[in-house]
Amino acid sequence: MSDRCFLVLGGAGLVGSQIVRTVARAMEPKKIVVASLFRGEVREFLYDVRKEFPHIEFVGAWGDVFVRDEFNLERRRRLLQSRHRRDMLYDDLFGALEEAYGRSALVQLIQQHQPDVIVDCINTATAISYQDVESLSKQTYDILQQLRQIVDHQDLEGLDALGKALEQNVSTLLISQSVPQLIRHVQMIHRAMREAGTRLYLKIGTTGTGGMGLNIPYTHSEDRPSAKLMSKTAVAFAHTGLLFLMARTPNGPLVKELKPGAMIGYRRVAYKSVRVRGMPQFRYESQMQPLQPLNGRLTLRGDENQYDRIGKIHMAGVDTGENGFFARGEFEAITHINQMEFVTPEEIAQQALLEIKGSNTGYDVIAGVDSSIINPSFRAGVLRQTALDKLARIEEETKSHSVALGQLGPPELSKLLYEAHLLRLNYQTLRNVLDTPASELSESLYHFITENELLRTQITSIGVPILTPDGCHLIRGPRINIPESIYHEVELTPQAMNAWAQKGWVDLRPSNCKTWQERFERMRRTQHMLHTRGTSSVTMKTYLPETIEIGSVVAWLFNNDYKGHRIK
Description:
- The chain is an alpha/beta fold and 568 residues long.
- It is 49% helix and 12% strand.
C-alpha cells in the first residue's frame, strides 16, 4: 500500500484511537491526522501516540465537522440561541451547495491534508438524530395551540413573546431535520474526497441499537420505546443507503462500512466522578421536611439552588467512551448473554485494518448490500425490445408522440428527448443533421413546431417551454418547470435564461443546434470501430444506430456528457 496520509475522524474516541494505533503499527504511514470534537481529548491522545510512534507525524484537529468552519468550536446549543446564526445554519443546509461546500469545516479539513484514506469513526447517526426533533415538534405544536387561542379570543397580550418563541422553535426545527443534514454531509464529503484523490473511505457505522431489535430495553436515559433511538437507527441505515450510492458513483473513492452489532467496550475500569454532557453531576440533600404531597402538579425540574449541594457523585464503573460511563450493575446487565453483549474496539480496529489493506473480511456492509440486490436480467433485456416495438406501433397507429411526460427527472431528460424527437422527425439520421447548417436546423425546427399543434401543445402543457430561434420569446403553457422555485415569479436575466434553457427548455436557437451537431459528430466517430474491433468496440461510448433513436441518444448523453451512468 502506498497510503501516506490517514485522516481518522473521531480519532481520539474509543474505536478511533485503536484504529489510529493499529494503522500506525501495521502500515507506518507518513502522517495520521486525528480529528475529534474536543481539543483536550485530542491533545491527551496525541501525547501518548507520539511517544509510541515517534517516526510518524501526528496532527491534531478538533471541533464539530458538521457545521461551517467558523462555527466548529461552538456548542450547537449556543449556536441555536442566536437568530442570526440559525439563519446561517439554515443557509448552509438548504442554501446553494456550492457556497456551503466552501464554508464546511469538514471540507476544509480534507482539503488541507489531502488524505489517501479516511476512516470515519464519528457516530454520525447519534450526532444528527439526537437533536431531539420529537420534543421540539411537541413544543412547537403547543405554542401553535396557544397562538390559536390568542387569535380565537383576540387576546393580544403576550403575543410578542409567543411569536418570538415560535420563531425560534420553528427555525430550530427546520435546521434539526436529520435527512437534509445527512444528505448534505454525504454530498460534501464525497466531493471533497474526489477532489483530494482519496483512495478509500471506511465508515465505522452503527445499528443504532447495539444489534438488538425494536424491543431493546436500553436507551440513553429516555423512556422506551425511544423515539430518539429509533431515529438513530433510521439515520444509521439511511447513511448506509447513501454510502451505497457513493460506492456506485464513478471516479470516487472505494467505500466500505463496518457496523458493530453490540455495545463497544471498554476503555478503562475506574472510580471517578460522574459527568453528564461533559458537566459534573452533583449529590444534593433530599428534601425531607416538609415531604412533598402528591397532589396538584408535580415539578419535574426544580431550582437546584433550593437544595443543598453535598459534592460530586463518584462511582466505580466502566468507561465505554462515547457510549457513556456505566456502573457495575448497568454494565453487568447490558453485557449479559442475550442482552446487547459487547465487542472490543481492538477487534473492530483489526477488521478495519484488513479492509484498508484490501482483504475481504465479510463484514463490509456495503459489499453485503451490493451482493444481495437483484440486478438487471437477460429476460428484462429481451422484453425491453418487445415493449419498445409495441410502443412504436401504437404511436404510429394513433399519430401521437410518445416522448416524455416530465414525470421522470431530471428536467434535462424531457428537454433532450423532445429536442432529439424534433431532429428525428425532420432529419431522421445523424448524418442529415450534420450536413445541414445550424441556422437552417433552427429555422426548420421552429417552422415545424409552429405548424404541429399536437406536439407543440403537448410539450408546453407538461411544463417545458420552447425558446424561439431569436432567443427573445417563449412558447409556453400555464406552468414552467424550470426554474424550480417556491415563488410564482422570478427575475429574468440573460445569464439565468441561458442556464434555464440548458436545463429544461426546448431550445431552438442556432447555438443549441450547433451543440447537437457536436454531439452527433462524437457519436458517429464511435461507429467506425464496429466492424474492426469485435465485441470490444461496443462500450458506453458507442452509439450503434445510424438513425436518431431518441432514448438511445439521451442515454448516450447521460452516460458520456452528464456522467450519470451506473458502474455495476
